[in-house]
Design a protein that fits this description.
Its cofactor is Zn(2+). By secondary structure, this protein is of the alpha/beta class. The chain contains 4 helices and 7 strands. It has 2 domains: 104 residues, Collagenase (Catalytic Domain); 89 residues, Collagenase (Catalytic Domain) (3-Layer(aba) Sandwich).
């Protein structure tokens, strides 16, 4: 699957139309997906004049190369959606009290949607600072669950709980998501791999009807961009 990351420039520019995006890069066909039900109760980031402005801070523990990876990942959203990540300065505190803080803690993780105040995205170094992981965690922060957690997932995949590591079953729980009338995408950057959190090397997730179906992706896809635009009403 061709990724956005291999084709798109990293500098932020005004939001383009979907037609312009599809002409600029080689992208998979559009499939739009689910958002957390919390997005209807206040965990969406605020939109002002058509843009979603989100301040960020990057921990000084990251190397210059790691910082560039994180910033480059954010710039994909800046360029192809109405989300605008910008570096937080001290004078922003009055107007922008909610912001994302990228830090190296234990593992790769993020809260779902806007939490209020300082909100952590953990990108443990080494291991978590890659473009695909950064996009994955940013999508969580924007309000999206894992693809295999969506409410209709049982029609598309089988979860093999016997193969899941003890204590990790909660990562596979089904959520009553707002699927926005969209289709399931096995190759989403938000989808777990076949053996994610396996206790014995055997599959924890298998696609129904096609056990050889590849699950997940190391790169953000066209459909991941589409769903951000739909959730936040990007023009």
């Amino acid at each position: 699957m061709t990724s956005l990351l291999t084709s798109l420039p990293s500098s932020p520019k005004p939001t383009r139309t979907l037609q312009q995006v599809s002409k600029t890069v080689m992208l998979p066909p559009p499939r739009k997906r689910n958002a957390s039900p919390c997005t209807s109760r206040g965990c969406k980031w605020r939109t002002s004049r058509g843009y979603v402005r989100i301040p960020y801070v990057i921990s000084s523990s990251y190397s210059s190369r790691e910082r560039s990876t994180i910033i480059g990942a954010m710039n994909i959203f800046n360029r192809y959606t109405c989300v605008r990540f910008f570096q937080r300065r001290w004078w922003h505190w009055f107007f922008y009290r909610d912001y994302i803080y990228f830090t190296s803690r234990n593992g790769c993780w993020s809260s779902i949607g806007r939490q209020g105040g300082r909100q952590y995205i953990s990108l443990q170094r080494p291991g978590c600072v890659s473009s695909g992981v950064v996009h994955h965690e940013i999508l969580h922060a924007l309000g999206f669950h894992h693809e295999q957690s969506r409410s209709d997932r049982d029609r598309f995949v089988t979860i093999n709980y016997a193969n899941i590591q003890p204590g990790r079953q909660r990562n596979f729980r089904k959520v009553q998501t707002n699927n926005l009338g969209t289709s399931y995408n096995y190759r989403s950057v938000m989808h777990y791999r076949k053996t994610s959190f396996s206790r014995n090397g055997l599959p924890t997730i298998v696609a129904k009807g096609n056990p050889n179906q590849i699950l997940g992706s190391s790169f953000i896809t066209y459909s991941d961009i589409i769903r951000v635009r739909r959730l936040y009403g990007c023009r």
